[in-house]
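Data deposition worksheet. Section B asks for the primary sequence of the deposited chain exactly as it was used as input, without tags or linkers unless they were present during the calculation. Section C holds the resulting structure in token form. Section D is free text for depositor observations; keep each observation to a single sentence. Incomplete worksheets are returned to the depositor.
Section A, Depositor: J.P.
Section B:
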Amino acid sequence: MDQIDRRILHVLERDGRISNLALAERVGLSASACLRRVSALEKSGVITGYRAVLNPERAGIGFTAYVTVGLNRHTKAAQQAFEQAIAASPEVRECHNITGGVEYLLRVEVSDLAAYKRFHTDVLGALPQVNTLTTYVVMGSPKDMRG
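Section C:
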């Protein structure tokens, strides 16, 4: 990857629906050269997909929290069982296996506090692998680059 590829990625991260012609103009390439580069970035796996960015309020998401999860057993089987349960939970929008005092960091999105309480109690609280849970409620997001 060179500087032009990085500029292409920078623009696409902010506007994945930009036309090839507009993208080419922004990065200083001809339309055909830009299209070849984008295709090469897709084919090589640097660009893995495009997605819609939702307005949380209009999508019915009124409550977002980050949750740290500590497991009671530090085995591969415990991690796999936890990850399978989380994969089946639509409330969990991100799950990261992390280092430090706990094993996982989750981003949870639900309609409201009552829905989060149900998820916390009925899903996370019911998993036999879970030892500790700490919830951090998002009060605002002055910078959010997720696409």
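Section D:
The chain has a mean pLDDT of 96.
The first strand starts at residue 63 and ends at 71.
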